[in-house]
Design brief:
This protein has about 325 residues and is an alpha+beta fold. Helix content is about 30%, strand content about 20%. The strands form two sheets. An eight-stranded mixed β-sheet has the order 4-3-2-6-5-1-11-12. A five-stranded mixed β-sheet has the order 7-8-9-10-13. Bound molecules: aspartic acid (ASP).
């Protein structure tokens, strides 16, 4: 049998420059005072999303229902121009949406490159619950949504259309490059993870993706294991930022695996970010990726490449507090 200490050491080497960590003992879970329920989500628009999720959690509801209800808030808000209705379009003027959801039983559903549906997260949930499949894409996802009672609508608001037309004046239709990245407003997915009063974990993630992306481009947000992963025995993680970099390292799955191997949520997020930094070398300065993680003890943490990453927390102890993530730069 592999020696646990040697194993943890080899994981640290793989992960880059992880600090010394005290492994968590998950077998002691039953004896530990777990902080639950709790919901955490990415960015400042996570605050109203958490409020909604908390209504479900505080009345004894399921984490899955809470995360779906929570992320529907920015999906339906025309002022959040990075998620759902009002999301900035791609370079052809289409609002194309990506979303995924995962529950406490490894069940998951996802939609990608979906147009015309305000709440892609609920379509992802329908994929999970009504089909034996996991991912529906493009026209097929729209067809599935319409067959399941969702309404098709125009998601391009006048504000987002105006921003796209402004971009067209100087924008060049070519693959996105790292130098196109604008830390302040190129991005911002909502990723939400929660533990309910029964101690079960679930997560959801939804986005309109990088602004003015090439038509057909799909990021990490609908990819289970990249933007979202839930292992109900150990923890859950979500990501935001440049999706290509997250997919390359199976980001959220990496974070959960590090937690499974004893890392705290923040150290596990750092382990995943360190890999991205190592792969990108000095180009990492031009990237943003942030991970947010919650373990089975109700402990949470985050780590990002750039300092701008914020997340929102709602629990019995902390009523919707906005926190700055620890960051590499
Ligand atoms: N991860 C998203 C994507 O690559 C964007 C973001 O979170 O900012 O589509």
């Amino acid at each position: 049998m592999i020696d646990r200490r040697k194993f943890i050491k080899s994981v640290s080497l793989l992960a880059g420059t992880l600090p010394f960590v005290k492994p968590l003992n998950f077998s002691k879970f039953a004896k530990t005072n777990v902080e639950k329920p709790i919901v955490i989500s990415t960015w400042d628009f996570g605050l109203p999303a958490n409020e909604e999720a908390w209504k479900v959690l505080s009345s004894g509801g399921r984490a899955l229902d809470a995360v779906e209800a929570g992320v529907k808030v920015p999906e339906g808000d025309p002022n959040v121009n990075t998620v759902g209705y009002g999301g900035l379009p791609d370079r052809d003027g289409h609002v194309t949406l990506d979303a995924c959801i995962m529950d406490e039983n490894f069940r998951c559903g996802s939609v990608m490159f979906l147009e015309g549906i305000k709440h892609p997260i609920s379509v992802a949930r329908a994929v999970m619950e009504k089909t034996p499949h996991i991912i529906f894409a493009g026209d097929g996802a729209l067809q599935f949504a319409l067959q399941n009672g969702f309404k098709e609508e125009n998601l391009l608001t006048p504000e987002s259309e105006a921003a796209w037309k402004e971009w067209l004046k100087t924008g060049v239709y070519k693959p996105w490059e790292k130098k196109d990245w604008d830390n302040k407003d190129s991005h911002d997915t909502i990723g939400m993870i929660a533990i309910d009063s029964n101690g079960n974990l679930s997560g959801a993630c939804t986005t309109s993706g990088l602004k003015f992306k090439m038509h057909g481009r799909v990021g990490d947000s609908p990819v289970i294991g990249a933007a979202l992963y839930v292992d109900n025995d150990y923890g859950a993680a979500v990501s935001t930022g440049v999706g290509e970099e997250v997919i390359r390292i199976s980001g959220a799955h990496t974070v959960v695996e590090l937690m499974r191997n004893g890392y705290s949520p923040a150290d596990a997020c750092k382990g995943a970010v360190d890999r991205i930094i190592k792969i990108n070398k000095d180009k990492a300065k031009e990237l943003q990726v942030g991970f947010l993680a919650l373990n089975k003890f109700g402990e949470y943490g985050s780590y990002a490449i750039q300092p701008e990453f914020q997340y929102a927390v709602y629990s019995n102890k902390e009523k919707n507090v906005l926190k700055n993530s620890i960051s590499h730069f």
